[in-house]
Amino acid sequence: MSSEENTQSVPPRPGQLVFAGPRRAKPPRHLADLTVAERREAVAALGEKPFRADQLSRHYFDRLVDDPADMPDLSKALREKLVPEMLPRLLTPVRDLACDGGNTHKTVWKAFDGSLFESVLMRYPDRVTMCVSSQAGCGMNCPFCATGQAGLTRNLSTAEIVEQVAAGQRALNQGRVAGGPGRVSNIVFMGMGEPLANYKAVLGAVRRITEPSPSGLGISQRGVTVSTVGLVPAIEKLTEADLSVRLAVSLHAPDDELRDTLVPINTRWKVQEVLEAAWGYTRKTGRRVSIEYALIKDINDQAWRADLLGRLLKGKLVHVNLIPLNPTPGSKWTASRPEDEREFVRRLESHGVAVTVRDTRGREIDGACGQLAAAVQT
């Protein structure tokens, strides 16, 4: 495995919460787990010339080939030797549902060990965005989130994350998305899991996604967003990683009393600590921070909370993404009333804070994180 791929973000300290699940068998090593140098070393260890790794990289990252028969510059004997070792099949689609006229596709993937997780491809007039998972399940235990209620199964490997993006690009190339061929331009780590609880694998995936082809998929770092519920040490570590990705903080409440309930990790790192870490990222990178805020009826959508949030964010390089909650079946949590949503927006704008209400895609296909995977499991 690449040195970038690991299961822990920050070494635990006494009294610190740890979010790794039980020790499990690792996914098979894949070319996307490795740096360019590591790929060449791996191929040499198999008794072949190192340049064969470059050929495999071109097929995977540039041509997006997933069938060894479509690698004409490699003999059958070489394909039979190298492909199982360097390009093992990592993910099997279990269910793929489309909506929004075929512009939104949500896929449930099964990994080698039966773990299930999701990715979503969303086509807009000016871009194609992929929402990817970084874990199977999630250990953050946020009560309004289907993934959080399912618990954490395990961290995904770098390659399992990258393959979600590669599969989306293949679907576009093959005309399986409405509108014909296109290019994935934006990646958001907002699927299942807490990305910064799987820091090293996520960092490796960001590098594979953004490195120029054929080393990687060649997507601009400025088109990549990494979200977190507020793991402060990992935010600080990301700040020093020399990246220009956007940081998104899933805040959901401006006051510690409520956020302790909605985002339990807040009992470890409070609102002010999380925001200070985010402002540090902004100072280092010059990138605007996105504040994610799921509007929940009668819970966090009061006008006074909008004012409090506005005062916290005023004058900062920040944008608020208000998310109408997509309720999970049987949940007491539901989306805010339209008039409360409008007032929340108005109050934030009165403080000079940029705000938008997120376009809600995929409601009819279990669009909230974790809903479709849960439906498959049952």
UniProtKB/TrEMBL annotation:
<dbReference type="InterPro" id="IPR004383">
    <property type="entry name" value="rRNA_lsu_MTrfase_RlmN/Cfr"/>
</dbReference>
<feature type="binding site">
    <location>
        <position position="326"/>
    </location>
    <ligand>
        <name>S-adenosyl-L-methionine</name>
    </ligand>
</feature>
<dbReference type="InterPro" id="IPR048641">
    <property type="entry name" value="RlmN_N"/>
</dbReference>
<dbReference type="InterPro" id="IPR058240">
    <property type="entry name" value="rSAM_sf"/>
</dbReference>
<keyword id="KW-0479">Metal-binding</keyword>
<keyword id="KW-0489">Methyltransferase</keyword>
<keyword id="KW-0949">S-adenosyl-L-methionine</keyword>
<feature type="binding site">
    <location>
        <position position="227"/>
    </location>
    <ligand>
        <name>S-adenosyl-L-methionine</name>
    </ligand>
</feature>
<dbReference type="InterPro" id="IPR013785">
    <property type="entry name" value="Aldolase_TIM"/>
</dbReference>
<comment type="similarity">
    <text>Belongs to the radical SAM superfamily. RlmN family.</text>
</comment>
<feature type="domain" description="Radical SAM core">
    <location>
        <begin position="124"/>
        <end position="364"/>
    </location>
</feature>
<keyword id="KW-0408">Iron</keyword>
<feature type="active site" description="S-methylcysteine intermediate">
    <location>
        <position position="369"/>
    </location>
</feature>
<feature type="binding site">
    <location>
        <position position="142"/>
    </location>
    <ligand>
        <name>[4Fe-4S] cluster</name>
    </ligand>
</feature>
<keyword id="KW-1015">Disulfide bond</keyword>
<feature type="compositionally biased region" description="Polar residues">
    <location>
        <begin position="1"/>
        <end position="10"/>
    </location>
</feature>
<dbReference type="InterPro" id="IPR040072">
    <property type="entry name" value="Methyltransferase_A"/>
</dbReference>
<keyword id="KW-0004">4Fe-4S</keyword>
<protein>
    <recommendedName>
        <fullName>Probable dual-specificity RNA methyltransferase RlmN</fullName>
        <ecNumber>2.1.1.192</ecNumber>
    </recommendedName>
</protein>
<dbReference type="InterPro" id="IPR007197">
    <property type="entry name" value="rSAM"/>
</dbReference>
<feature type="binding site">
    <location>
        <begin position="193"/>
        <end position="194"/>
    </location>
    <ligand>
        <name>S-adenosyl-L-methionine</name>
    </ligand>
</feature>
<comment type="function">
    <text>Specifically methylates position 2 of adenine 2503 in 23S rRNA and position 2 of adenine 37 in tRNAs.</text>
</comment>
<keyword id="KW-0411">Iron-sulfur</keyword>
<keyword id="KW-0808">Transferase</keyword>
<dbReference type="Pfam" id="PF04055">
    <property type="entry name" value="Radical_SAM"/>
</dbReference>
<feature type="binding site">
    <location>
        <begin position="250"/>
        <end position="252"/>
    </location>
    <ligand>
        <name>S-adenosyl-L-methionine</name>
    </ligand>
</feature>
<dbReference type="InterPro" id="IPR027492">
    <property type="entry name" value="RNA_MTrfase_RlmN"/>
</dbReference>
<feature type="binding site">
    <location>
        <position position="145"/>
    </location>
    <ligand>
        <name>[4Fe-4S] cluster</name>
    </ligand>
</feature>
<feature type="region of interest" description="Disordered">
    <location>
        <begin position="1"/>
        <end position="29"/>
    </location>
</feature>
<feature type="binding site">
    <location>
        <position position="138"/>
    </location>
    <ligand>
        <name>[4Fe-4S] cluster</name>
    </ligand>
</feature>
<dbReference type="Pfam" id="PF21016">
    <property type="entry name" value="RlmN_N"/>
</dbReference>
<keyword id="KW-0819">tRNA processing</keyword>
<dbReference type="InterPro" id="IPR006638">
    <property type="entry name" value="Elp3/MiaA/NifB-like_rSAM"/>
</dbReference>
<keyword id="KW-0963">Cytoplasm</keyword>
<keyword id="KW-0698">rRNA processing</keyword>
<feature type="active site" description="Proton acceptor">
    <location>
        <position position="118"/>
    </location>
</feature>
